[in-house]
Amino acid sequence: HHEDEDEDGQDDDGDTDWNLRRSAASTLDNISQVYGDAILNQALGTINTMMQPDQPWESQEAAILALGAICEGCYDGLMPYMAQIIQRLINVANDESYHHLARQICCWSIGQMNEFVLEKSNSSLLQQYLTTILTLMKAPTKSVQESATAALQRLLEAASNSYDNEDSLKYEGCMQAVVETCSACLVNYQLKNQQLLLECIENVCSYYGTELAHGETFSLLMGPLGKLWGETPDSSPLIFAYFECMASICNAFGKAISDYAESIFNRTVSIILSHTHFRFTAKQQDGDIPDEEYLITALDLLSSLFDAMGASLEPLLKQQPQLMDCILQSMRDDSPDIQKAAFALIGDLSGSCPALVQSNLDNVCNLMLARLKDVDERRSGAASNVCWALSVLIEHQMDIGNMPTLSAGHYDAFLTTMAMLLVEANFTTDMVNLAENLCLAIGCILLVDPQCLQRKGASLGFFASRWCEYVRNIKNVPLKDRALRGFLATAQADPSTLVDALLPLFDVCASVMHDAASDMKSGIKSLLQTLKNNAGPQWQVAIGKSRPETKQKLHVAYGV
């Protein structure tokens, strides 16, 4: 064990190397995973002895680390004592008589029990823990700042990912306290912890979302962030984290970011233009290719800015005629992550300033189709964004003057490619988002061009089963509504094409029973009744295999 810094020291690498202490903690974690609660009595006895106030701080810190290490493997056995354990660790973290390394490891060990802490949102335990984290974030010791900031990040992530406790950190005064602390720390942190704090602010924006746009939270965050924006050169190691943080700020605050919009736009466009040129030149001359993160973070930030500001950015777009060529070049780039960011930007441009996309429609569509014809797990994110961007463009394209619009030829090409991909691809867990966006895009095409399948001599039955399998799990958002309307309109023209897809179709219909408009419910009811009357034994088999809750929903909502 080594003491990594003085309280007034500069940033350093800290205790990040693999060493005997970390190896021992990892081994203890593995032992607890294998033997579970069988080790608990002996482990807790030793830990309790080592944590006593008269023990050396090295023993206290090691005991707290060990406690966190066994949490996952011994979770059930620790459950009856967890409130007491967490309270004890909170007390140590707040007690300045303990060594700062013992106090900071408390943050990590309690983080191992975040699930339990969030379940106790109605007790004082969660509030005590959050108050402790926010207090330690403002400590003078750099390593304590780092541990506390990481603890806040983990807590926000745990709350965001918790179905039952997602609102745990939204009690009165909580958001304000979090924002005030982050704001104060932005001013005082040095480079290493500043980067971690920017990543943490991303989590704050993701968790609280548009709730942040009310009151004084915007000025609290943007005061120091705006200062940092002006002081941070493009060459700074902080720039990637800063751009990612600003993208989250745009997503959370929307049009409230308007005073900063022009500055953000000009800076990101400048980086996109220069780094597109740098990459192209380096490849042509077989030179060193610049870090792709410059392009990725700039494209992502510009996407978020368009999502926040919409068409109000159109005058700025007109001042940058080279931008679209650079976006097209990024769509062709051999980096899957640059492609992914570029296609996401095309989607946001399609929603806010579709004229720019439409003026380059054939180039955009050809690049989209090319990406859909060569898909693997690495490139699935880019392909998923292609599908999403197409759905957005279908909805927002403007049919005015001589402006190009998506034609029957475009729809035929996209539907053929997408249907084949949906049916033939082996979608891994990491590719589910692609499958879902494929289905939504197919539904949107069918909504605006009901004759598309007929022109190709194809049947809805070719992909209906897989389409329903993925759509049933998508949240009920407006895009799902449009896609389902397109699918149902096509199905109603020939219901027999759905006979082999009844089971997943039932799930899709049940999934929208609470949110569907009355006309959609009537259409679903009519379609299901037709299938019931004509599918015969296949209907009975599918109903028999359906889950009881699905059958109940179909009966209540649609009378079948």
Verbal overview:
The protein is built from 30 helices and no strands. It is mostly helical and 560 residues long. Helix 13 (239-253) packs parallel to helix 15 (293-309) and helix 14 (258-284) packs antiparallel against helix 15 (293-309).
Summarize it:
The chain has 560 residues and is mainly alpha-helical. 70% of the residues lie in helices and 0% in strands.
How would you summarize the topology of this molecule?
Layout: H1 20-35, H2 40-50, H3 57-70, H4 75-78, H5 82-94, H6 100-111, H7 114-119, H8 124-137, H9 142-160, H10 174-188, H11 191-208, H12 217-231, H13 239-253, H14 258-284, H15 293-309, H16 314-318, H17 323-332, H18 336-352, H19 354-358, H20 361-372, H21 380-396, H22 408-424, H23 432-448, H24 452-456, H25 464-471, H26 478-493, H27 502-511, H28 518-535, H29 537-545, H30 548-558
List its traits.
560 residues; mainly alpha; 0% strand; disordered N terminus
Q: How many β-strand stretches? A: 0
- Helix percent band: over 70%
Order of helices and strands: HHHHHHHHHHHHHHHHHHHHHHHHHHHHHH
The span between the termini is 68 Å
Structural class by SSE content: mainly alpha
Give the DSSP E fraction (strand runs of 2 or more residues): under 5%
Task: Return Rg in Å.
Answer: 28 Å
Main β-sheet, in a few words?
Answer: none
Characterize the overall form: globular
What is the typical, i.e. mean, pLDDT? 92
Low-confidence stretches: 1-14
Q: Oligomer, anyone?
A: single chain
Put simply, the count of helices is: 30
